[in-house]
Hints:
By secondary structure, the protein is an alpha/beta fold.
Amino acid sequence: MLPSVATAATDLRQRHALPLQGPVAGRCRRPDGRYDLTVTRIAEILAKGETTFSFEFFPPRNDAEQATLVHALRELEPLEPSFVSVTYRGGPSSRRRTYDLVVGMLRTTELVPMAHLICAAHSRLELAEILVDLRKAGVENLMALGGDPPTDPDSSAGELVHAIELVHLAKAIGGFSIGVAAHPGGHPKSPDLRSDREHLAAKLSLADFAVTQFFFEADQYFRLVDDLALLGVDKPVLPGIMPVTSLRSIPRMATMGAAVPSWLVERLEARQDAESVREEGIQAATALCDRLLADGAPGLHFYTLNQSSATRQIHQRLVGGGAAGRAEGAV
């Protein structure tokens, strides 16, 4: 039988021989260089004005995925992320897995978790129940998403259609710091970029911050921020980062919503072996992060896919001052 995914966070604590803890706080450095352990809401963490680093995970579905997640958590927790997010696939089983992992992190680690929630395949009442359960457990951070339509023919489409409706519901429940998704190149379902930006501005008039889909060219991000500013929105927008670490991941990334640009594909295909392809992808991602931070992005949000090594390497090159190995080309 698959053990509860809450044990992933507990196992992390046990492997470090550390005692269980209650909810602790977000990672914001005080002027004296020590961490402020009183801030747990992401909106307040961002308001501190310090550069944030955050990581995204998905809840495991089986023993093998759980072992991978435990390893990733063990490797990434020492980097002291500002917060972490946990995705939600939809349906009763994913509902339980996301809840267990978020609450397990909250109670047994020093991580500040954010739960994802989607509109798709849920009634308004079900969503309200999930939100109430999260608040009762002490969860303060929520990523409100529309979600993809369910593929299960027995699942309903859901009563709420757009993420902004879920934001309204979460605000009615109260107590959440709420994030929403942003798409630098425009949401795939948006008829045009203008309507995409107007819809995002409407979401951010209610939510506290946004996290973008991953992308590969810094100018896309800054155009998004400029477009929002023209619409009177100045809420923080965190850029999402996912390095290309293999040639086989290139077509998959396109299906996930962000095609790898041709200039980067050419650079990757010019490498001679899998390890050099991976290194080229990490160099390109590091250069992108450098440019984003240098030009004013409030932080970086890494899509880890429950793997730790690429994220650790990029973090080290950014925070550890490792200029060697950085690449040109973060347009």
